[in-house]
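ARCHIVE CARD
Drawer: 12
Card no.: 0347
Subject: one protein chain, sequence and derived structure
Cross-reference: see card 0346
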Amino acid sequence: MNDLPKVKGDLFENYELANLTRFKTGGVAEVYFSPRDTDDLSNFLKKSPKDMPIHIIGFGSNILIRDGVLNGIVIRLQNDNFSRIEKLDDGSFKCGAFASCVAISKFAAENDVAGMEFLFGIPGTIGGAILTNAGCFGREVKDIIVSVEAVDKLTGKSKTFMLDECGFSYRKCNISDEWVFTSVVIKGKPGKKEEILKTMDEIKTKKDSSQPTYTKTSGSTFKNPNSENPAWKLIKDSGCQGMKLGGAIVSPKHANFIVNENNATSADIEDLAEKVRLVVYEKFGIMLEYEIKIIGSRKLENP
């Protein structure tokens, strides 16, 4: 800690991370930093030790943090300065990277802006949604992005990425992970509040009926290999739905969701996911690719 710069925000050692994730699992951060604003973040990144890895987390809705100590610095932009949503003069919205997708969709409805209803079905922050080009029900984040503001992890300098510089594709953004997203400008189209809210309600109904929404899960575990072979179908047809390992289970409601059912560890969840990948590969010759991001190092049982 003595090697770290002075900050305006919160800075802690050995910070418990489990409660910051949807899985409710994971170890402790060697260093945890929540900046007060972009200047605080930039100053910290510019002056912090360059040999310490930096991990960015939002709502923890699409990650699995491994058990044990997570080496390096965990940064979470949870300050209100990073959650602000405002309407600009041209009708677009400027949103802090920690603004929730759900909050943005509600803000859009209140302002009679359509095209952002799908965000109501994404449980994370807009920053995380950009990183993975998150989407549901036929829409993706790339469909509403105007620009992304980010800070370089090494130098602390800011840069604005326009849509054509983001390199969006299925569940992917090509902006280097050397950048920390701080805000985004998004734009929808004129709509009517009543119709927008109706669409959002339909999205919620569909999601609640088909996914284990109110459980300890981080959403879809694997990417869909292609439209003909969605991950959930490959898993189900491989006989893995309902499979358990430790306290983790492949959701009986949706086969592409792994749930922390009974005090699972991160190792339980990862080992179950790897078992599913192996079974699917043996049956169909397709190796599923993770949609969730796994961070940290595996603990060796026999070091």
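Annotation on reverse: The radius of gyration is 20 Å. DSSP finds seven helices and 19 strands in the chain.
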